[in-house]
């Protein structure tokens, strides 16, 4: 999509500078360089005034309200991505301006369940070209970054073969092995017995390690051994650094060519390079083993697959898929696991219901597997869903470029980006009464009849909630790994509640992850787990203590 500066003048500020320098000799004769630069600056100011005036008055999206700076520059979105409050800013914009918000010059947000489904389920949209900043090298498209609909469909079809229920069932014993190791490590504390409360642990790091170990085994047939302090522990930080960069550049793609992170975030740049080098090595090593080298891993489905022209996935695309699998396969799960620790440790009623439910359903860890947990522990499933609702792992908008689409009665012209902020939709009272409270009962049908505190819960309210629950998105680009995420989260907490107890510690460590007044816009709620939106959610804490049952 073209940027309006180019549409209005056809010139960038650098072109104006060159023009200014070229005009000086014939107009003024010989003069100083400083005068020439001043003249170029004047031209640039004139251009800026023209562009701003156009964007506020004559632009095809000018009629839609939104933040002033958002309507005139993409730097508005980049700034809030840099701060990590992009999701909160989008929510605040909807509170102030309504359901349709022009959030950046060429981007419009819609905050209704119908609008969201129209956008993400329509054939008249494509993925925004802004996501091209994610690809590690030219032409290295993954299922996530494929703008072309045919390419995306082909890649998605291949990956879905490895995510069928029978594939997940076959992998589940390996997953449970990692979960068991995680639980054992949570109980370890030098100088204390397993029956005593451990010292506080920052579970955010350990949830990252668990999710990445699981993804290493499932994706590549390789245990990263991050729970054992293996060599790959840097991955968790490197992924966060990479997402920090990408979140900014998706708002301002034209800045990506300058690689500003080299100057302003050199540590993050180095970590991202290490991450890219590792994923490339993993892809190449796995490809050398061939399709049957480690039978059953997800990558085996990518090796040797041919398109309609008889071509196999090229090396750079295998690399890009490896990068995507590691990030997407671990980030959502680890964020939800961490959020669940936060909310259950602070909601005694919910904790006790899950505890009773799990310990009634199972008497031994060997009995725990996803189908049994799903059938026997509906309240745990509701807790998982409520954590995803109130603290979605990716709370911003997944932008789609309109190809000429009517959304909730508003025509969105072709060539402009549209989307829905998941965080804003998940906190809209029309669909989720008392939206900032952690209430798993909102997903359970008899809740309003049994407990008067939840008299708002009816079959109609539950249907509305489901219609607006978009953690994994909807449509052809919805997350294809959502069942694996549910399996991982459910199995982990079922085992935790069966084999141990946990609580938040007293004192300052017990407050890590909470909101408070003075933290910034939308971060004043103590009961809400604070995520920073850098493409996906990054976080600090919570700290948790454990004790063996």
TrEMBL record:
**TM spans (from-to):** none
- Required cofactor names: heme
Q: Does the keyword Oxidoreductase apply?
A: yes
Q: Which terms does the record give in the GO molecular function aspect?
A: heme binding; iron ion binding; monooxygenase activity; oxidoreductase activity, acting on paired donors, with incorporation or reduction of molecular oxygen
Keywords, alphabetical:
Heme, Iron, Metal-binding, Monooxygenase, Oxidoreductase
Query: Matching CDD domains, A to Z?
Result: CYP67-like
Output the InterPro entries linked to this UniProt entry: Cyt_P450, Cyt_P450_CS, Cyt_P450_E_grp-IV, Cyt_P450_sf, Cytochrome_P450_monoxygenase
Q: Which SUPFAM superfamilies match?
A: Cytochrome P450
At the top level of its lineage, which domain of life is listed?
Eukaryota
UniProt-annotated binding residues for heme: 479
The UniProt similarity line reads: Belongs to the cytochrome P450 family.
**What name goes with this protein?**
Benzoate 4-monooxygenase cytochrome-like protein P450
Which species is this record about? Periconia macrospinosa
